Amino acid sequence: MNERLTPASGVLIKVKRVAQSEQILGGKFEGEHGLKEVKAFVAVMKGRGVCQAVEKVLAMILAEREKMGARAKRHYFVDMKFFASKMKELRELARGIGATQFRSIDAT
């Protein structure tokens, strides 16, 4: 999953975004169903960034880590409820217009 984290709910690691033309969600896919208008879906990180993040967490006092963990957990459940409600809407839409509407014109 790609839940969004904030500095308040997690330790962020600097990454280089890479767009992939071979992946439908890659940002550069040219096919009909590709994800559009995104910088990139793949992130490349270096070991140094991971080490810096671990060092940052180790430098925190226990109370700071507990607060961060509680915020992350709360944010996760908010995201899950949002996702579940959107999936319910999608199911209702699919049932209402029929599955054939979701097939492309060229599909057989």
What's the quick description here?
The chain is mainly alpha-helical and about 110 residues long. About 45% of the residues lie in helices and about 5% in strands.
Attribute tags:
flat; 2 strands; 45% helix; two-stranded antiparallel sheet; 2 helices; mainly alpha; 6% strand; 108 residues
Describe this structure in words.
By secondary structure, the chain is mostly helical. It has one domain (16-98). 45% of the residues lie in helices and 6% in strands. The protein is built from 2 helices and 2 strands, in the order ββαα. It has a two-stranded antiparallel sheet with strand order 1-2. The longest helix has 36 residues, at 62-97. The radius of gyration is 19 Å and the shape is flat. The mean pLDDT is 84.
Structural category: mainly alpha
Main beta-sheet annotation: 2 strands, antiparallel
Strand content: 5-15%
Using the CA coordinates, give the radius of gyration.
Answer: 19 Å
Provide the spatial order of strands within the biggest beta sheet: 1-2
Instruction: Please state the average pLDDT score.
Output: 84
Q: Give the overall shape.
A: flat
Q: What helical percentage do the residues reach?
A: 40-55%
- The total tally of domains equals 1
Per DSSP E runs of 2 or more residues, the count of β-strands stands at 2
Q: Element order, helices and strands?
A: EEHH
Q: Which blocks of ≥5 consecutive residues have pLDDT under 50?
A: none
User: Alpha-carbon distance between the termini?
Assistant: 32 Å
Number of helical segments with 4 or more residues? 2
